[in-house]
Amino acid sequence: MCRLSVRVATIAFTLALVMPSTLSAQGAKKKVAPPPQPGPVKLPTKDGLELAGYYFGSNKGKEAIPVMIVHEWKGQKAPYGKLCTALRDAGCAVLALDYRGHGGSREYTDPSGTTQEFDLERMRKQHVLAIVKYDLDAAKAFLEKENNEGKLNLNALVVIGVREGCVLAAGWTQRDWSFVPVGTRKQGQDVKALVLVSPKRLLKGVPIESSLGVPTVAALPTMMVVGEGSEEQSDTSRIYKRLEAAKKRISGGKDPEGLELMEVKQPLGGPFLVNESAKVIPEIVKFVTSQVPISDTDNPWIER
């Protein structure tokens, strides 16, 4: 009887030693790895440029919402680090790029092999269209590679534009939705929401309304952010009303869904609005993460 008690006690003590370590090992397996360190990336275009980008990867794998940030004309990606970090911390995978003529993408090689620098004052409508066709496609190509490695879900893409970058963002969204699937192969229709910060109506003669008025683009959840008294307020009001009318046409006259206007009571615009208002970044993060669900039925992950 005494031996039996000793044996039972020994077994119980051994289990007490083993079980916590087993449980802690299981807990270690469940521990989520931190997101990868952000860093610079190169984005080659199909017309021979190499653009500069900065990528904030996610630790959510196929459940990560990818976000592309398109800066303003005569701007660059650099001021949007806080926004990128906040989105990354919410589980998104974020790519900010300098499109041609801006930031780290000012130079190009001419046919003779000489390095030249873009002259912003001489850039015209054809350059804007090239940014939409080549530069933003190059950004998507990078995200597509990440998608196929299981590091994000390209089918849940969000595009954020700032000032004139809103024209580019809307134009590229229209382009993205023009690529219909070929059989089971998905080619586009990946953008699932837009964020327009201090939107401008025109860029080198290219109007934003011509893209936002397209039903496939108008139907997307869209958030606009503007500073009261800013130089962009008039354009934003006009764009909002046009998009509101387009959404009503789509819904048969019902109140438009998925359209938000955030008016900040400060005359701030562009990167200053993003960084100096305490409310803007949290509200953008909230919009992005709430408007683009990911599941087996909503925006499921698809290999390209």
TrEMBL record:
GO terms for molecular function: hydrolase activity. InterPro entries: AB_hydrolase_fold (IPR029058). SUPFAM superfamilies: alpha/beta-Hydrolases. Residues 1-25 form the signal peptide. The keyword Signal applies. Keywords: Hydrolase, Signal. It comes from the Bacteria. This is Alpha/beta hydrolase family protein. The lineage of its organism: Bacteria, Pseudomonadati, Planctomycetota, Planctomycetia, Pirellulales.
